[in-house]
């Protein structure tokens, strides 16, 4: 087993006791099952920027604050120092999102520490103690599909109330443990109030869940949770315990032209990403 340099250096420094095996590999990182502090955990090793296929698109970074003004200017100018700082900010985004969402009651893996491009966090397991499967690897009957879909809507509402939109939510980045879904992969999470693409991304996230579970429970395909959710959020009426209906009058749907153009603009990129994930899953790379 080839261990990435970033992980190997932490083993040499004694921060990681042992690397057991590679769990999965994605477009931005590799995940390993490790032992740290005498506990079995998982280590997410981010690939170097030049080796990652996920684009740090401007649309994801909009609305993120940078406290240091010198750093912010360098990032805006794209200097070598600025690129380094932008990379560091991108990597830290997931850690910050995990802590914020965990505090908000969202089911995410518990983060322990982040050092030199390696995030060590809780290993999510199934009822047998094995690494939990992805949502895509689980088959559902209609009743269970509706139950899990309802749980995902609750998680998305809690994320939105915490000020974040996942931005890349699909059946490939949700794990299933003995209690239900667990949301993972958050470096691209966006600021719900400060990002002009937040509504579009929320709609895409919610509709990805609708379409996935709709395979098993077709009645879900006619729901409108994204529109209902965003309307409540926009008017300050969305709360973590809000009871949604999935219904939304067509006349109330915001037909904002700019939003529609963004949806059209990113549809092709989204489809290409989905095909790439499917290819990687078939090839055992994901």
What's the topology here?
Blueprint: H1 5-12, E1 18-25, E2 29-36, E3 39-46, H2 58-61, H3 69-77, H4 80-103, E4 111-115, E5 118-121, H5 142-161, E6 164-165, E7 174-177, E8 180-183, E9 190-191, H6 198-214, H7 225-234, H8 257-282
Antiparallel strand pairs: 1-2, 2-3, 3-5, 4-5, 6-9, 7-8
Could you describe the 3D structure shown?
By secondary structure, this protein is α+β, with helices and mostly antiparallel strands. The chain is globular. The longest helix has 26 residues.
Low-confidence stretches: 71-76, 251-255
The gross shape turns out to be globular
Total helices: the number is 8
Helix content: 40-55%
- Rg over CA atoms: 19 Å
Number of strands: 9
SSE order in H/E notation? HEEEHHHEEHEEEEHHH
Structural class based on helices, strands and sheet pairing: alpha+beta
Largest sheet: number of strands, sense, barrel closure = 5 strands, antiparallel
Spatial ordering of strands, largest sheet: 1-2-3-5-4
Strand content: 15-25%
How far do the termini sit from each other?
16 Å
Whole-number average pLDDT? 84
Keywords:
single chain, 286 residues, alpha+beta, 5-stranded antiparallel sheet, two-stranded antiparallel ribbon, 41% helix, globular
Produce a short descriptive summary.
The chain is α+β, with helices and mostly antiparallel strands and 286 residues long. It is built from eight helices and nine strands. Helix 3 packs across helix 4 (80-103), helix 5 (142-161) runs antiparallel to helix 6 and helix 6 packs antiparallel against helix 7 (225-234).
């Amino acid at each position: 087993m080839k261990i990435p340099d970033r992980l190997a250096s932490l083993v040499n420094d004694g921060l990681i006791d042992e690397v057991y095996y590679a769990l999965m590999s994605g477009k931005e990182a590799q995940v390993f099952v490790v032992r740290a502090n005498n506990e079995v955990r998982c280590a997410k090793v981010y690939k170097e920027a030049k080796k990652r296929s996920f684009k740090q698109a401007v649309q994801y970074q909009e609305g993120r604050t940078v406290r240091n003004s010198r750093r912010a200017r360098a990032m805006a100018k794209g200097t070598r120092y600025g690129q380094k700082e932008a990379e560091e900010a991108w990597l830290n985004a997931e850690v910050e999102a995990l802590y914020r969402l965990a505090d908000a009651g969202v089911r995410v893996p518990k983060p322990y520490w982040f050092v030199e491009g390696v995030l060590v966090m809780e290993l999510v397991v199934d009822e047998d103690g094995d690494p939990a499967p992805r949502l895509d690897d689980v088959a559902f009957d209609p009743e269970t599909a509706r139950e899990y879909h309802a749980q995902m809507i609750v998680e998305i509402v809690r994320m939105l109330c915490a000020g974040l939109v996942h931005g890349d939510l699909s059946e490939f980045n949700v794990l299933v443990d003995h209690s239900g879904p667990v949301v993972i992969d958050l470096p691209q999470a966006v600021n719900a109030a400060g990002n002009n693409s937040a509504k579009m991304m929320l709609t895409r996230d919610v509709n990805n869940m609708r379409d996935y579970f709709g395979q098993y429970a077709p009645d879900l395909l006619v729901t409108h949770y994204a529109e209902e959710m965003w309307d409540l959020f926009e008017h300050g009426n969305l709360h973590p315990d809000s009871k949604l209906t999935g219904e939304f009058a067509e006349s109330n749907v915001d037909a904002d032209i700019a939003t529609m153009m963004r949806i059209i603009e990113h549809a092709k990129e989204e489809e290409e990403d989905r095909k790439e994930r499917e290819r990687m899953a078939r090839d055992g790379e994901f």
